[in-house]
């Protein structure tokens, strides 16, 4: 290689065969060309064939691939720092040795940095084999994105392009004592120091691989190690960004992600002392940094868990987690324009968690409503020629729910509602006038409300979805009613003797209750019209054949 390479790619390697081969092939095959590329790979004491594979690539591409071997350091920070000390490119890029790049990744990111004079470029990342990668930042290309008003805080891995002059000016390095999360202090400070940060979103630059045995370091770290790392990262960030909305914008990620992950499904089964240590550690951080701004920007489930941990309410926290896992989200308590999720500890004076923690703050909750809205009973009521569908539906809402209603709606739910099973209607959405009678009462167990409805059927052929409409926190939700194996009432004949209909209630393949109405046979006048129409068509057909 002659001259300064455009980009030095740093690869910290420890026992990543056979994934390492695909990683290295994706680097030497970059469209930017090997003459503009430098790969600095550091073997951190691998005990598999990783070191030999690195040497093989260095022999094949001696002008591009540099390999350093060192004793195992216990994490990716030390080998990354060693590589930074010898890197010579105008930019430096970091890649996990079990991941790989899109063919044009480096060319596109270097071009973006040069055109926009960027100090940091974030290329689109996706996960493979079930690896989760936050996608909100990659909606569109952005020449200048801020750390403080974008999804960037949720994308703090070091897998980005950094201007090396900036890295050396501020002597950015990785803390080698952190077993997990050591890339975050480096990335956060780089984003704080950067004059401009750009996003390449129209091309998949990076493929993050979850290994088949889930042996990535992120998945192996224990609870206390992750707590210590999160605490250090929070303190580090607080030292870089002054108190206020900007700091909250970054730290919201750590409360929503790293700290919330310490109090998820496995928490109830942990040793009591470990539970106490986790709650105490989260509480110490929450006492200082869990501001009203961070609290209100979080979803209610995570917010409640952080607050219960802060209060060291171990039993209530464990109950909140296990109950939601087994039964779904708790019911909502509606009080005028406000709604609260009735998790354990709600308005418990012994715990003292404010109502605001349990309140739905600008949060859509379709999935929570859908999981608990189910049919309890249904039947037909017939009076003369009229037929009415009656139903009792359990709705996970308590309090002021007099506005709840059941309607029979033609047409399928939009695809956007299929996954959560409900949707929040837009403010301008207009519903047809309500038909029938509605009555709401508390459920026998006091954990929900029951909507009793009587809806007359119209003599119109077709299927109608049985849906509940309920107001929660200032929004109206449309929720399909689920059958859950409840026997449906037998089909019923109804209508005039000369124009009868057949009505049946059924559960469709998605588990939703549907009413199907159809004419049993057409009225006499319709038969005559059809016969005359057929005769006319036959006459026209014969006339055409004669011509």
Keywords:
547 residues; alpha+beta; 8-stranded mixed β-sheet; 7-stranded antiparallel β-sheet; 16 helices; globular
Structural overview:
- The chain has 547 residues and is of the alpha+beta class.
- It contains 16 helices and 22 strands.
- It has helices at residues 19-28, 50-60, 77-86, 105-116, 164-169, 183-193, 217-220, 223-240, 245-259, 272-289, 292-297, 300-310, 314-327, 355-358, 366-372, 524-546; strands at residues 7-13, 37-44, 65-70, 91-96, 100-101, 120-128, 161-163, 197-209, 332-335, 338-341, 374-383, 386-395, 397-399, 405-410, 423-424, 437-442, 449-456, 462-472, 475-480, 492-496, 499-507, 513-519.
- The strands form 4 sheets. It has an 8-stranded mixed β-sheet, with helices on both faces. Strands 14, 15, 18, 19, 20, 21 and 22 form a 7-stranded antiparallel β-sheet that branches. Strands 11-12-17-16 form a 4-stranded antiparallel β-sheet, with helices on one face.
- A hairpin with a 2-residue loop joins strand 18 (462-472) and strand 19.
- The protein is globular, with a radius of gyration of 31 Å.
- The model is unreliable at 215-220 (pLDDT under 50).
Write the SSE topology.
Elements: E1 7-13, H1 19-28, E2 37-44, H2 50-60, E3 65-70, H3 77-86, E4 91-96, E5 100-101, H4 105-116, E6 120-128, E7 161-163, H5 164-169, H6 183-193, E8 197-209, H7 217-220, H8 223-240, H9 245-259, H10 272-289, H11 292-297, H12 300-310, H13 314-327, E9 332-335, E10 338-341, H14 355-358, H15 366-372, E11 374-383, E12 386-395, E13 397-399, E14 405-410, E15 423-424, E16 437-442, E17 449-456, E18 462-472, E19 475-480, E20 492-496, E21 499-507, E22 513-519, H16 524-546
Helix pairs in contact: 6-8, 8-9, 8-10, 10-12, 12-13
